Amino acid sequence: MKLVREDKMGAQVLGGRESVKVAVVQTPSAFMDKKRCLEIACDKIIEAGKEGAELIVFPETWIPTYPYWTMGWDTIANGFHDVMADLQDNSLVVGSEDTDILGKAAREVGAYVVMGCNELDDRIGSRTLFNSLVYIDKYGGVLGRHRKLIPSFIERIWWGMGDSRDLQVFDTEIGRLGGQICWENHIVNITAWYIAQGVDIHVAVWPGMWNCGGVEGESFIYAGHDINKCDLIPATRERAFTGQCYVVSANNLLRMEDIPEKFPFKDSMTYGGPGQEQFVGWACGGSHIVAPTSEYMVPPTFDIDTIIYAELQAKYIKVVKSVFDSLGHYARWDLVNLTTPPQPYEPETNAPGAIQPDVRDRVIESVAKEFKLEPEKVAEVVRNAA
Predict the structure, then answer these.
(1) Side-chain-facing half-sphere of 53: CA atoms under 13 Å
(2) How far apart are CA 195 and CA 182, in angstroms?
(3) Cis status, amide bond into 344, omega within 30 of 0
(4) What is the pLDDT of residues 261-277, one digit of tens each?
(5) Could you tell me the domains of the chain?
């Protein structure tokens, strides 16, 4: 993994800017209606952009919704298939008119946009969905995407897994920008990889806010406002300090009144604690913004349809790094470092379980270089081991 930046932009905090204004959109999406979601998104992008926001972030799978309805072995099969097909039809397609529409709004106000969405696979013949972050630059182009690397628990019913192409950090005019989705923010090695890239602004997106139970008589997680019982709060605050970055946390807000009565699984979509029955799943909001010192710039904001704003100051990243620089004087890469696969597997692989030749050769070259060995010797060891 390359740790030394060659580009001049990436060597500067916030791209050389003194400050960057960011916005988090916490507003209900149009449930299972991509066309209307795109219209609302553009309105919010324009609104936030006119307020001076240079980065505008939407929550997890905001287009067209997070699948809060519960599914199990007793779910009626045709009900599941109908809903799944509808979700696929209303999911965003990268590089299509969908991203063109978002790009036009971003370009109009000169802002970067990070959109949480269900993404329909662009591989020919595939209908697989991914839980994705799509990055739009201020000129209206697609910077890239990040697909959730491992869907959590029952989410695996809905989404495929991302791969090494989804480890993405972008050098922009407002700084180094990266993001992770929900419980990815707890995956130690993946989080370490993002920190190692020197991210200035980390985007964390979630389906809402919850309380963690687990004691006898309690659900494992349920909608609630007690920030002392929610795992995502220490995750975002620790991430800000450990990575010496700003964390922009976007949390979904969706109410039961926003769900059409005809939706077949509506009755299964509320599982909140006392006073939370009006919200879908955990979607009671909770968006917040954290400074590199781990203090709140904007504390968790619950229950309301709003856009939150903060002015990120480059000097606070510099101040924290002056005493605790996790990529500098507080790093021990001589003891532990990170290695990522050079490229993902593709369906053209000939033998089941075989390493693709180009992947194998790159791994051999990487190992030889790291340990100062002859590539031929490493290749011989690999052949003998096989």
Answers:
(1) 25
(2) 16
(3) no
(4) 999 889 888 876 666 78
(5) 9-323 (3.60.110.10), 341-386 (no CATH)
